[in-house]
Amino acid sequence: MESEPDHENVEQSLCAKTAEEELNKSFNLEASLSKFSYIDLDKELEFKNDLIDDKEFDIPQVDTPPTLESILNETDDEDESFVLEDPTLLNIDTIDSHSYDTSSVASSDSGDRTNLKRKKKLLDSFSLHGSVMRHSLLKGISAQIVSAADKVDAGLPTAIAVSSLIAVGTSHGLALIFDQNQALRLCLGSTSVGGQYGAISALSINNDCSRLLCGFAKGQVTMWDLASGKLLRSITDAHPPGTAILHIKFTDDPTLAICNDSGGSVFELTFKRVMGVRTCESRCLFSGSKGEVCCIEPLHSKPELKDHPITQFSLLAMASLTKILVIGLKPSLKVWMTFPYGRMDPSSVPLLAWHFVAVHNYVNPMLAFCRGDVVHFLLVKRDESGAIHVTKQKHLHLYYDLINFTWINSRTVVLLDSVEKLHVIDRQTQEELETVEISEVQLVYNSSHFKSLATGGNVSQALALVGEKACYQSISSYGGQIFYLGTKSVYVMMLRSWRERVDHLLKQDCLTEALALAWSFHEGKAKAVVGLSGDVSKRKAIVADRMVEILFHYADRALKKCPDQGKIQVMEQHFQVVLMCWENRLYDAMIYVYNRGMNEFISPMEKLFRVIAPPLNAGKTLTDEQVVMGNKLLVYISCCLAGRAYPLGDIPEDLVPLVKNQVFEFLIRLHSAEASPEEEIYPYIRTLLHFDTREFLNVLALTFEDFKNDKQAVEYQQRIVDILLKVMVENSDFTPSQVGCLFTFLARQLAKPDNTLFVNRTLFDQVLEFLCSPDDDSRHSERQQVLLELLQAGGIVQFEESRLIRMAEKAEFYQICEFMYEREHQYDKIIDCYLHDPLREEEVFNYIHNILSIPGHSAEEKQSVWQKAMDHIEELVALKPCKAAELVATHFSGHIETVIKKLQNQVLLFKFLRSLLDPREGIHINQELLQISPCITEQFIELLCQFSPNQVIETLQVLECYRLEETIQISQKYQLHEVTAYLLEKKGDIHGAFLIMLERLQSKLQELTHQGENTKEDPSLKDVEDTMVETIALCQRNSHNLNQQQREALWFPLLEAMMAPQKLSSSAVPHLHSEALKSLTMQVLNSMAAFIALPSILQRILQDPVYGKGKLGEIQGLILGMLDTFNYEQTLLETTTSLLNQDLHWSLCNLRASVTRGLNPKQDYCSICLQQYKRRQEMADEIIVFSCGHLYHSFCLQSKECTMEIEGQTRWTCYKCSSSNKVGKLSENSSEIKKGRITPSQVKMSPSYHQSKGDLTGKKATSEPVLDPQQIQAFDQLCHLYRGSSRLALLTELSQNRSSESYRPFSGSQGGPAFNSIFQNENFQLQLIPPPVTED
């Protein structure tokens, strides 16, 4: 890739962006950079199955990891002593310490020995991958760097650091801060400080872009606030004096930084702020006396990985001249890995770079380090025990020496070799994607700082030799972008998006390569892909669209080269393309080549017709592919007639009339080329009509719309219409729908105001005869629908209406009749159309409702419809009774009796009345507005007794308007005893209802006793049980409202009826159902025991003459059962009494203890006026003490309005307890009393007040005994805080729920007339333990 000059930027024009716009896009938000950041690309690229080849081996783990001190004391493992090969490189006397305007290394030999060693040369892959990187000059920053050097003597640039801001350090000690718009935001420092500290040799910006660290050539360090531009710290003692700062870097912890000096030492800087004073503590991590470190790199994590377990160690990688170290700064200093280089070229630059990658679906940091021509990758993991493991990955062998290594994402790295060439490498495949020459950048080198020229050059020869190619501070990466600092400029490089890479090849006319690159994106085989996200299908669809555009672009260029005349070889190329498209079913491409390449529009039609015509003429079904071709043919013809190119664009204006004429001439040809003798006339129109009549006619209709009324256009229209009529009317191969489509099309054309077509009216009559043919019963609905469309399209004017109606009625075309009647406003006749049409007969109800309710129709029309509906009411009810009832209730409510008279069929009348009167039918009828007379309801009940006797009682329960006497007579007429009993009960004749049920029960029992062999499952026994249960329910429902004598008149006859069969049966030969009858009798006894006293029942049984002779064995079970019930109830009564006595005793004991207990104030002063209560005794004021412990003067409380009247008594409110939550509602007061905030207090009173209070209390005591308010409070507290609800309250609640009588036991304990149920309280608990023992 070539870099663009300032005056003409080719790639900027290609991408329609300037470098400034790119920077703005890059720095707008850090989130916007995330599309280039590692984590998103990890998700896109790493979570695939094509993971890296795991030729990896674990570094052996040792029991005791080496300490930092032991490593520092190790000797260098070098076989021979270090000898400087070129001493002239260190001639410091001839080098100006402030001269940084040197040419780049690539412009001269500069001692690069790697030019002599080229191990292997990778193939140039521009044609395969295109231009991967975009290279842009930041003009705004570059111009201001040069301007600062000229105007304020800032010096030349020396270092760069990039975050959401760009910081550039200069040789005279200034730091220039630029924002996202390349505007100079701050200028930090001064030239006077630069003269003292020297040039800026290193820069670092923290994570949140709020602090800047500057390292200087003479060893000082400064910290700046990037928001305000203030100097926060000036550090001069962080490391030994006389050495330059080579690196200074923030860690993820903003209070921790790392610096590396030219002595090879590494120091940890900890920033603190104590009592407003900012300090800095320095700790040596690595001493240069044991090995010189020339590169450091802390592990930085993005915000989305801040919770990664590896980040808690704050890892730091260091590269000395002999080994690599990875140490952890937290929680304590620890060495996690050492890795020796082995033999290396001493002039090679050690390089380190961290990046998070995803391997095997786990994201972990990977450290890349290199020196020379080999790049090693180390994967760092943390196991479950908390230990860190380092795994060596596949390393990368190169044919050049590196001076910079940068991750651009997890799969792509950018390498800079010693001759200033950039190499873009795919890490997994180790394939070189692109090589870029950047010598024009004139990269700044850090050689003078490594030689420490500002402090006299007191560095080792080895470090000075490495520094010859050191450019650590000139290259900075951020958010997938790499910034290069030149002597007079700043450049930025980033990965192109996949679209830009394709467009770049297209710009250079590399169409084949662009298509191949797009195909690699489509197949997922491309490298360094940016801008493709989502699932595979979505990505493929996006790329496929771009590939189609490339193909069209290619076809355009190829076809533009096609000559109108010339060598036949050139023309043959286009025919070969056509043949290839046809063979591969690329029909759109074939049409495109014909049209654009040869201006030929008819040949594609002929080719497509030859495919679809034979099967259509033979009456065969088309295949899917043939259907697609037919649809393409229709669309192509439509485009040609409309002047549009197929599939995109427009036909040139000068060709449009010619193309239309050619297409029309082609369609109306009498015969096709190479026609057989059997071919019918007009084959092309015939084929299109057979393929899709409606769509072909739509194409013609659109074409006729565009025609101008010139003579030729009119001739073409008439000619085509004549051909259509000849083909379809004279041929029996077309269906009624196809014929109808044609005449509908003609009717629409004839109905136009500017119509010029002529169609013989007799043809319409022929079509009418064809569609209304009574001899043909097939396709009845299809023929009717076709004729309806024809009439609606304007064809009505072509027919005689009376003849049309007659033929439609004869053919039973009721929709046609409706259409005609509606035109003549004969709405009543439409009702007959609906009733006679089986497909639409249920729609008649909505039609009648709409005519009668929607305004717009005259009174005569509505009356005719109303009368017609009344005449056909029996048919309507037979059709849908519920709809008919709803219609009658809405529009015929005053003529219901007339409707009933018209319904002669009793079954229909029953269904109609049930829909009208029974609300369970789901019809929304307002019965009050309907005002149905009782005789109609009784007529319905009589019909119900005839047709559905089992539903009479259920229906009576929901009916309202009927008379009891007449209804009882109806039920007696049809001998429905249950219904009669229900009605008598509703009337109030309980005894009469009971007698009917009893008589029915006795008859059932008689049937049971006279049966022969039956089992317990016999249906008659089931009938007895059901009848008995109904009778018991009748007695139970009404016993509450009867006196004792009336109750006995119900229950004892029932008991006798159940015991009668047992008396009649012999004891020697028991009845088959005797056990079942005994069980039923016991059920009667258990039910009546709740209403009849047990002694009365027992006495009645013993007085029976059958049992009065001493034969008690038969009734022993009954008596023992009653005795058990008595014992149970006696035990229950005794237990309840005992519990109540215990409750009362326990409550009184605790009440006494609470009342006699004094109140203990929390302080001896008033909580409002804050004065001791003793000082105000002379004012005869009262002292009020609350149970919460607060103490007040009564005057103070009154001034705060802390008194209220509750049930005629004055209550005081604790001011402090209620001040945070003001009590304003009486309903809240009761809860406050329980908490001790509103309480009658112990009062120290004057004698007069005491006397008046006592008189009042005495008067109340004479009227009724009441508890003192304080006693009430204590009792409530006991009940709620200690015990919950008392047993007395439980029993009282149960007695209230059990009976609605006025008398309730323990009603005197109620404190008020209305209380919420205690069982509904969410805190209610049933405590079944005895009460606690209370100590006095």
Give a quick set of tags describing it.
Vacuolar protein sorting-associated protein 8 homolog, Znf_RING/FYVE/PHD, zinc ion binding, six-stranded antiparallel β-sheet, 49 helices, metal-binding, alpha+beta, disordered N terminus, WD40_rpt
Structure overview:
With 1336 residues, the chain is an alpha+beta fold. 44% of the residues lie in helices and 15% in strands. The strands form nine sheets. Strands 1, 19, 20, 21, 22 and 23 form a six-stranded antiparallel β-sheet that branches. Helix 38 runs antiparallel to helix 39 (1019-1039). The longest helix is centred in the last third of the chain and has 41 residues, at 1116-1156. It is flat, with a radius of gyration of 54 Å. Mean pLDDT is 75; it is low at 1-63, 71-124, 565-569, 1013-1017, 1221-1264 and 1298-1315.
Shape: flat
Question: Low-confidence runs (pLDDT<50, min 5 residues)?
Answer: 1-63, 71-124, 565-569, 1013-1017, 1221-1264, 1298-1315
Bin the strand percentage: 5-15%
User: Multimeric state of these chains?
Assistant: single chain
Rg, rounded, reads 54 Å
Count of strand segments = 36
Sheet having the most strands: 6 strands, antiparallel
Q: End-to-end span in angstroms?
A: 101 Å
Instruction: Count helical runs.
Output: 49
Q: Would you tell me the overall average pLDDT?
A: 75
Task: Please state the structural category.
Answer: alpha+beta
Helix content: 40-55%
Pfam families: Beta-prop_VPS8, TPR_Vps8, zf_RING_Vps8
InterPro entries: Quino_amine_DH_bsu, Vps41/Vps8, Vps8_central_dom, WD40/YVTN_repeat-like_dom_sf, WD40_repeat_dom_sf, WD40_rpt, Znf_RING, Znf_RING/FYVE/PHD
Protein name: Vacuolar protein sorting-associated protein 8 homolog
Family: Belongs to the VPS8 family.
